[in-house]
From TrEMBL:
It holds the Pfam family Cytochrome_CBB3. Residues 36-119 form the Cytochrome c domain. The lineage of its organism: Bacteria, Pseudomonadati, Acidobacteriota, Terriglobia, Terriglobales. The keyword Oxidoreductase does not apply. This is Cytochrome c. It comes from Terriglobus albidus. Coiled coil: none annotated.
């Protein structure tokens, strides 16, 4: 009996661990609820990123979907999901992503990061 009980407890612990590890991404903030900076970032995204990345859908285009990018611990590259890493990737590029440093100024970058935090 004790062995069977131990087995049930172990199975329950494994199932709980798996379920907790599979976090569901929350929905993005609705566009109507964005503040001014986030709204400007939305437009930066539309003009500079949208052709390769989905923002409000969790389906990849040419590049990975960015929905929930800051809700996850790591970026698709495996790097920590931090503003510094995202900014570096945008400015300098990575793998197939071209460097956008020439087309995104500091203000646009701050606005874009603010928007990405709403996803």
């Amino acid at each position: 009996m004790p062995l069977q009980k131990t087995s049930i407890v172990l199975t329950a612990a494994v199932v709980a661990t798996v379920l907790l590890g599979c976090r569901h991404l929350g929905p993005p903030t609705s566009l109507q609820k964005l503040n001014d900076q986030q709204t400007r970032g939305y437009w930066v995204f539309q003009t500079s990123c949208r052709q390769c990345h989905n923002d409000r859908e969790d389906k990849p285009l040419q590049g990975p979907a960015l929905m929930g990018i800051y809700q996850k611990k790591y970026l698709p590259s495996g790097a920590a999901a931090t503003d510094e890493r995202v900014q570096s990737t945008v400015l300098h590029g990575r793998n197939m992503m071209p460097a956008m440093g020439g087309s995104v100024n500091d203000k646009d970058m701050a606005d874009l990061l603010a928007y990405l935090h709403t996803l």
